[in-house]
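During the reporting period the student researcher (J.K.) took over the structure-prediction task from the postdoctoral fellow and processed the backlog of single-chain submissions. One of the processed entries is reproduced below for the supervisory committee.
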Amino acid sequence: MRLWDVRTGECLFVWEFPTAAKCVSFNKHGTQILVVTEERMGYRGALRVFNINRDPSSWKKQETEPMRTITFSGSKATVASFDVFDKHILTGHENGKVALYAHDTEEGESGIDAELEIHQVKAHAENVTDLQLGWDGTYIVTSSKDKTAHIIDASTLDVIKTYATDTPLNSAISLPTRPYVVMGGGQEAMSVTTTSARQGKFESRFWHKIFEEECARLPGHFGPINTLAVHPTGNAYASGGEDGYVRINWFDESFFKSRPYGPDFEIANEDQ
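J.K. obtained the following structure tokens:
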């Protein structure tokens, strides 16, 4: 895992692990970072949390030992995120489970996942491929190989909304100023060479967050979409694909003037 200075492109620090790192995520204030490592070669899958030294004069001096470690004894985690208050950690697993762990920012408790888990829900039938915090922090958006995406309450883990598609999903995001969930995926990479972009279903898909209806598709990639991220203002989103391209899509003015709840009803952007 590498820590970078985004202004200069300089690598500040490198953490080494015995197996591959699958997911990284900063907390709200950038003072901690978590990493999920793979289960391989006799090593169990684990989630580690490191404190980040924010002093510019000593950025290259970071702690090498995690402040907490969660070792997975059952289904291994594939994705993870801090909650909006940095008091909990949410994880998505290979068997479709979504779990919640308490997180003390001062004294991290380490141990086996079953001992530290607050509660869990079997949200998906297959591997959870993405888990991102909603913009108000009250919910998370998950995607899965089972061809569905969910909005899940970040505290109770109740499934609030379900978006069922016809293709495996690798990522899903919620827009901050419009009531849409964007998701992407497509046919597995091993079959891409024999499949056209249309048949492979490599488009970004826009679903109405409230009505659970697909509204639009945006093509562009000629391979599966692996990851999605939205601009903090909601004016654009980026997609990264198996084709090696990162595409940045800016929404035009008509996107923000449309009335997604019907011609006679309108909600302010900050309340979407």
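The committee noted the following: The chain has two domains: 1-122, 127-271.
J.K. will present the remaining backlog at the next meeting.
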